[in-house]
Amino acid sequence: MPSREWNRFMVNYYGDPYTMWHDGIDEKSVTHLSGAERKKAEDMLIASLEEGNHYAAIGLRELRSTRALNNLERLLPLSTGSLRIEIAVALCLIKNSIEAVSCIIDVLKNSAFWSYRMDAARALRRFPNEEVVEALFEAVAEDPDYLVRNHASETLLFLHGMTPRIADRKDIFRHVIVEFEKEDKDSVDSAFSHYKKSADMLRALIEEEGKLREGIIVEGIWE
Question: How far is CA 133 from its chain centroid?
Fold first, then answer.
């Protein structure tokens, strides 16, 4: 008979897709498994990874699955979007290395889909280094989507040990949220001047009040 921990793992990693997307999953649920159930879960996650399931990369990351390293490394250059982000994060955490961070930055800078760029901005909370910081400032100044700019701003605050809520910095936030009409060049130009202003103001604030976190990887980024 399956354990309660197994049932919880299945609900979180193989449950209703809409609920998983809308409510999120308990990423740590897989870590409560032991023995044969833990190995079975790892086998299932590796198989799901091969099918393109980005939740599988999360589970393998949480298990620190060295068995999955070859799969993750082979799939990384073939992947896009959320799968690319989660594979890169998994490789970084399993190997305790930041060599795959550039792939997350690539999604932030180049993905055509705002949701993937937003996910990349959030994922970069784990990596306090200057390359990440500059990519995030670029997103604040240049990304056309509000949610990407918002999360990039909050990741920058978090990485520098500050409360990650840009809306509380009203003098900066008012520039972040400016909207524009896509067909109106003057409207676009005006909005992007505000975004650059917000990035400049945020940089000045961080230089005055913040300090980049130590270490190459930060755990517990949502606690």
Answer: 14
Please write the tens of the pLDDT for every residue from 125-175: 999 999 999 999 999 999 999 999 999 999 999 999 999 999 999 999 999
Listed in order, strand segments (DSSP E) in the chain are none
Ramachandran sector of residue 210 (left: φ over 0; alpha: ψ -120 to 50; beta: rest) = beta
pTM, full prediction = 0.94
**Given the structure tokens 């705002």, which residue do they identify?**
114
Q: Return the ∠ at Cα 220 (arms to 172 and 68), rounded to 5°.
A: 120
- What 3-state DSSP class applies to 65? coil
d(CA 131, CA 195): 20
- b/e map 17-27, b = 16+ CB within 10 Å: eeeeeeeebee
* Domain residue ranges of the chain, discontinuous segments joined by +: 1-97, 123-223
What's the CA gap between 40 and 217, in Å, rounded? 28
